[in-house]
Specification:
This protein is mainly beta. The chain has one domain: Beta Complex (Metal Binding Protein, Guanine Nucleotide Exchange Factor, Chain A). Helices cover 5% and strands 35% of the residues. It has a 7-stranded mixed sheet with strand order 6-7-8-9-4-3-10. A 3-stranded antiparallel sheet has the order 1-2-5, with no helix packed on it. The longest helix is centred in the first third of the chain and has 7 residues.
């Protein structure tokens, strides 16, 4: 699930234009590939890669006023930079102190690797799922 990384904490990241910056003060818990249609449309790619941070570990240190959200109503609200549109986070609706962090928004290797694929029933037909040996779930990964 994870590997060693060269840097220490905090992990640092930001949006495409650099106006929003954030830090993560604790190691990430786990990472995943999501192949749902919502993630495909949100990213313009076949899947998104997100890592779960411990509650309270993410701090926006610059540009908090630029961070906007979209709540799909049946999932985790999506947070992005309103200046450049860069995807940054999603929020756990059961605990708004817990962020899912878009791995592409990090400045360096976070030392964690995705450990499963979810919503593979909706995988993009134009890009084959990788043969990476990770567990695959047709819908959301079951809790537990």
């Amino acid at each position: 699930m994870s590997s060693s990384r060269s840097g220490g904490l905090p992990l640092k990241g930001g949006c495409l234009c650099g106006e929003v910056r954030f830090e993560i003060d604790e190691p990430l818990i786990e990472a995943e590939y999501c192949h749902c249609k919502r993630c495909q449309r949100r990213t313009g790619t076949a899947a998104s890669v997100t890592a779960l941070a411990p509650p309270g570990a993410v701090r926006i240190v610059q540009g908090a006023d630029l961070v906007k959200s979209w709540d799909p109503g049946d999932g985790w609200p999506k947070l992005f930079c309103s200046n450049c549109g860069g995807a940054l986070f999603c929020l756990n609706p059961a605990d708004p102190e817990q962020y899912g962090v878009r791995l592409g928004a990090l400045d360096e290797d976070p030392g964690i690797r995705p450990s499963f694929h979810q919503f593979v029933a909706y995988a993009a037909p134009w890009e084959a799922l990788p043969e990476d040996g990770l567990p695959r779930y047709p819908e959301r990964r079951p809790e537990g």
